[in-house]
Amino acid sequence: MSRLKSSAAPNRQAGRNGRFSIANTKDTTAQKETMDISTSVFTDILSPLAAFSRPSPSQAAAAPENEEEAPPRPTATTSNLVWQLDGADFDGRRFFAVPTFALNAPPLRIDVYVPPLDQYPPSLLSTLRPQATFYAPAPSVPSLPIAQHLLRALESWSARLGRRFERQYSTLPFGSQVLVTNITPDPSDMRIVLSPNYDIEQAMPTLSTLQELWASHLPVESESAAWPPELDWTALRLVRQPHEAISLVRIIEGSDEIYVFKSLTRDQRYLYNELKMLLTLPAHPNLVPRPLYIVTRRGRFGGKRGVCGFILPYYALGSLKHRLLEHQLGSSSSKITPSEQFRWARQVADVFVHISSVGGTFYPDLKPDNIVLRERERGKVDAVLLDLEQRGGWFSWTPPEVAYVEYLEILAGELIAEEHKGVREEVTGLLKEYFGDEDWTPGSQRDRYWNSEGGFSAPWLALRDTTGDRWDRAQVFMLGKLLWCLFERQGLVRCGIDHEMLQEDVGDCGGDRVIGFPEFRETPEGVQRLIRACTKGAPEWEGRGRGVVLSRGKLVPVGAWMEGRAGEVTAEETRDEARRWWTKEVEKAMTFVKEVVEGRRQGRDGTQVSEVLRQAEARPGLVDVLAEIERLGSEAGIEW
């Protein structure tokens, strides 16, 4: 699990469960200490660590020493022509901003890092609203007060450096950083430095190394043809950097067509695992195609030419999540028809069958974000599955037989307080036996790539059996939740507690639109039955609620929000609710893993000892789900 450490050294290992935090700040309207997004959201709300959190003295966030409390300068939208800011990472600390001279040049992947929220002066938390980066729609991030303030600071800083700034910036290693070490009312007072990072280039494997590692995995009949052409990084021209892994680029000596340059500056092993998946999986019309090019770059130190990413098509229609959210907002151009619902459901189910039965592997991160739309003949729109990193998904989408093990992984690696040493040791011992690996230790995965069969998610790999049946039914669980999103026309599944809850401020939504799995309003009865079958074992069927939601920038118990009391609850009440919710989840997780481990000791199959696995086995297979979607669609008169 990732750790965001000091403002001067942002962690390069931050991953799916990257930490946030919580600071108690005074709500002047309600005169209550409510919970804002800040420094420990991961430990206090979003993860099983919340089960072990303890009440802390309520105190307002303290301003850093020697920091003035003066109000910031006006933050009207700037017409900044010196820097371009395209987005921010989910943790609110990483911004995708580049000086304009870096546009139409090879992408260096130099991101801008700011301090964690608990290091902001309190007066600036309310005026700059950095918390909004967590839940603001991606297109609106550049216009947020914090983004505009940051642009002014970057402009002032780079102007002071003069002509030498461009030279210094352009000669940095790939994946270096711009570090903002403090936030001040006057942007020109903010301290900013360039931080070279040679580790990323050094960790890049050469193309020949990957070819040697994967030789036995490529199609025997055409091993050489399985490799796309190599493209030198200098041939790319940056257009925008909207996401941590996605740069929109053009290729010189080509057309003006936009492409995706996929690269990672942390957890690079997942990039190479995805490349391997793309090269080894047979083509499918609803699966992102094999890369058009493999991009290599000569390092600044040592001269090694490493693989820094690959080129994929750009899908201008955007993601299924975006389309679903636009439909919720009533956009006439984004209306989703029953034909599209059934067609996209069939296409995604079909590509899952392909990955499982033809590719012999699994896909663990299904959600509307990872499906893009592509227009074809006669105006029809198809679904295309993206993101084959195999690093795992969000808890709310993950089947219990995987999520429960992920919970314990987090506890084994992150429950570091001495008072919890006994729990940590017990969990670690259980996981060693569950994984069948006495050498397993928390955080034992190396950052550098190695040729791991099936990726790097130990909880998913532990499900592998001789028939692939458990992988199959675990993926069916995710497919059932996607069917719910499609047929309820909802961009978010809204169940449980995880990072998805930070993507939506329910206080800004109309009550008629805020529903969550497994509530049904629009789904046809036959599809409802299929969703119920696919999601057998989901805790939501047993009445598990969401626990906590984000309402008008505050984290509040879902019950208080539903009763109209969101502004009346304290931060400690929210923390208590999360603690209760996660305590039950951890108890279920411990019970599940203990049952499986004890069953193995007795030579019994997991389904003989675990209700969780019995529920999973009762789900239909992927082929059965595909056939049922086709049958229901045909009954509804759908033309495929």
Automatic annotation (TrEMBL):
Start and end residues of each Protein kinase domain: 233-593
Molecular-function annotations in GO: ATP binding; protein kinase activity
InterPro entries for this protein: Kinase-like_dom_sf, Prot_kinase_dom
Sequence segments annotated as region (Disordered): 1-36, 53-79
Lineage of origin: Eukaryota, Fungi, Dikarya, Ascomycota, Pezizomycotina
Composition skew (Low complexity), residue ranges: 53-64
Entry protein name: Protein kinase domain-containing protein
PROSITE patterns xref list: PROTEIN_KINASE_DOM
Compositionally biased region (Polar residues): 1-10
